[in-house]
Write a structure and sequence with these properties.
Rossmann fold; four-stranded antiparallel β-sheet; alpha/beta; six-stranded mixed β-sheet; 8 helices; disordered C terminus
C-alpha cells in the first residue's frame, strides 16, 4: 500500500462562470486522507460538498490548487487521463446503485474490468474475480440474479462488489444508504465498516449523523471550505445545521 496520502488537496478552488455569474464553489480547501481511513463528508446544500466529491472522484478538475491521489498529481489531467485514473484507482458506490437491469449480479460486478483497456485477464479470470468480490459482500449465492430479483440492500452490495473489483486505492460512496430502509442501511454500513477493518480507504458523503457515526472521522464542508472535523465520526447536529438569518439581527 502506498505511503503517500490517498487524498491530498492543497489550496483547491473551483470557480464556475464569470463576472456577475461567477460562483466560488471551493475556496482554498485543504484536506488530507491517509491510507486506511474511513472519512464521512457532511455539509448543507450549497456548501461545496458535491463539487469536492466530483474533484476527489476525478470527475472534475480544480480551477487552482493541487490534488494528488495516492501520490499521483491529477490536478491538470485531461478527460481521458482522468477516466483512466477513475477506472484504476477509484471504486464508486452511488445512492441509486446504477446497476444494469438486464445484466446479472456477476456481470454488473465485472463491468469495470471490461472497461479496462490494459487488463489482460481472461473471461474466466474476470468471472472468478467478480465471484470473489460478491463473496466479500455476502452475495456469492446471488451471482446469477438480476437487479429486479434483489432487494435494495442486496443491490447496493452488488454495487460495492463492483467498486472492489479493480482493487482500487479509494472507495468513494455517495449517500450509499439514501435509498434504503434503516435495516438495510445498517447492513450496508456493516459491509463498509468491515472493508475499513481490512484497511480499505473509504470516503463517504452523507447527511445522516447516525450513518456518519460509522466513519473513523467526519469533516464538515461549508462555504467551500472545511470548517469542522471530528475524530470519532460524530459532528454535532448544530455544526452541520445551516445558520438561519433573522431580519434585523
Amino acid at each position: 500500500m502506498t505511503s503517500d496520502p490517498i487524498i491530498l488537496l492543497e489550496g483547491v478552488t473551483k470557480v464556475y462562470g464569470i463576472d456577475e455569474a461567477r460562483v466560488e464553489a471551493l475556496r482554498g480547501l485543504h484536506l488530507t486522507i491517509e491510507p486506511g481511513e474511513f472519512v464521512a463528508v457532511m455539509g448543507p446544500s450549497g456548501s461545496g460538498k458535491s463539487t469536492l466529491m466530483n474533484i476527489i472522484g476525478c470527475l472534475d478538475r480544480p480551477t487552482t490548487g493541487r490534488y494528488c491521489l495516492a501520490g499521483e498529481d491529477v490536478s491538470r489531467m485531461n478527460k481521458d487521463q482522468l477516466a483512466d485514473v477513475r477506472n484504476r484507482k477509484i471504486g464508486f458506490v452511488f445512492q441509486s446503485f446504477n446497476l444494469l437491469r438486464r445484466a446479472t449480479a456477476i456481470k454488473n460486478v465485472m463491468l469495470p474490468l471490461l472497461y479496462d483497456r490494459k487488463s489482460r485477464l481472461s473471461p474466466r479470470q474476470r468471472e472468478a474475480s467478480a465471484q470473489a468480490a460478491l463473496a466479500a459482500v455476502g452475495l456469492a449465492d446471488r451471482a446469477g440474479h438480476f437487479p429486479n430479483q434483489l432487494s435494495g440492500g442486496q443491490q447496493q452490495r452488488v454495487a460495492i462488489a463492483r467498486a472492489l473489483i479493480t482493487d482500487p486505492v479509494l472507495i468513494l460512496a455517495d449517500e450509499p444508504t439514501g435509498n434504503l430502509d434503516s435495516q438495510s442501511a445498517g447492513d450496508i454500513m456493516a459491509v463498509l465498516r468491515d472493508l475499513h477493518a481490512r484497511s480499505r480507504t473509504i470516503v463517504m458523503v452523507t447527511h445522516e449523523h447516525d450513518i456518519a457515526a460509522y466513519a473513523q472521522r467526519s469533516v464538515l464542508v461549508r462555504d467551500g471550505q472545511i470548517t469542522n472535523e471530528s475524530a470519532d465520526g460524530l459532528l454535532s447536529p448544530a455544526a452541520v445545521r445551516v445558520p438561519v438569518h433573522v431580519e434585523g439581527s
